[in-house]
Description:
Elements: H1 4-13, H2 22-51, H3 57-77, H4 80-102, H5 110-119, H6 128-150, H7 160-210, H8 213-221, E1 226-241, H9 243-247, H10 252-272, E2 276-281, E3 284-289, H11 298-315, E4 326-340, E5 349-351, H12 353-363, E6 370-373, H13 374-380, E7 384-394, E8 398-408
Parallel strand pairs: 4-6
Antiparallel strand pairs: 1-3, 1-4, 2-3, 4-5, 6-8, 7-8
Helix pairs in contact: 2-3, 2-7, 3-4, 4-5, 4-6, 5-6, 5-7, 10-11
Amino acid sequence: xxxxxxxxxxxxxxxxxxxxxxxxxxxxxxxxxxxxxxxxxxxxxxxxxxxxxxxxxxxxxxxxxxxxxxxxxxxxxxxxxxxxxxxxxxxxxxxxxxxxxxxxxxxxxxxxxxxxxxxxxxxxxxxxxxxxxxxxxxxxxxxxxxxxxxxxxxxxxxxxxxxxxxxxxxxxxxxxxxxxxxxxxxxxxxxxxxxxxxxxxxxxxxxxxxxxxxxxxxxxxxxxxxxxxxxxxxxxxxxxxxxxxxxxxxxxxxxxxxxxxxxxxxxxxxxxxxxxxxxxxxxxxxxxxxxxxxxxxxxxxxxxxxxxxxxxxxxxxxxxxxxxxxxxxxxxxxxxxxxxxxxxxxxxxxxxxxxxxxxxxxxxxxxxxxxxxxxxxxxxxxxxxxxxxxxxxxxxxxxxxxxxxxxxxxxxxxxxxxxxxx
Length: 422
């Protein structure tokens, strides 16, 4: 493309030294753009001074070369607070010379006002530089005004058309400088606002990965202890049987990758069935249903999820394992207290007898089986098949009846009634 060389030039020109403070890069780039405009200004008036055969042509050449040096210093060293003072003195001297030699009507005073904007671009360590530049510019403005009102203009013999040309060029350059700065500041504000929004979305996405959305929103509004009681919640624990033996023969990377594969699929199932993942502890996985908002039918959905979890592990064995890996699942339903406590590393957790019972169902359960309480069996026996385990001794609970969740009952097709009289 024909524009490629120009684009490459501007890309190269705006590449600053890597050692420059990132917070200074954008204002320095704006100063470089302004300096390019100043060089364009010098070229235009250099041509005009050649046409009218006036001595100020050499000032245009010198000022243009010095501005190129200013751009180099900005790109390499980035100290806009040091260089803006010298650059402004050059600009003021050039423009005042134009005012003194050609008068007020040629418009050399207008770029002085535009230069004030550029004075505040760098992020100064102190206010001496921008204040000094402003005082110098305003002083030059009023001195020029007094000069052309009370003293003789050295070069009054130029034609009216040349006066109009110089006036037009000065107005256009001043307006362009202000327009460029307005565009750069507006673009900077847009980019900054966009970055703030993106960072906020990232942080909120991360927070929502850690906490349920309603809980995260409550914490943002009021960062205090959250504790809610729920009358009916399903709580499931799952543990990979034989994982300790597997960890002794696999490298850490292989171990973690396999565990991540299993638990990531559990996360997908939790989302599929509307469950809330609570946490993982080593090779154990905890999930609940019916919170943080009331959700009817959570127990049946939990049973379906448990059966799918069992099936997935059965079908995804680790190649090279000496023994078949199995998962042991236990779940229970009942009242719990759920919330967030502490002041650091927030985590949504559950407390209560229901949680302890679900954990005991898993720890006292049979490998490769979904172990449930009598309460779960009574609520799901119409839609699911169970096997009775009998009474088991549960730590902290004594003897409890336990059952194995086998499968979901197949829907029996209703007999079709045929009307023989039709």
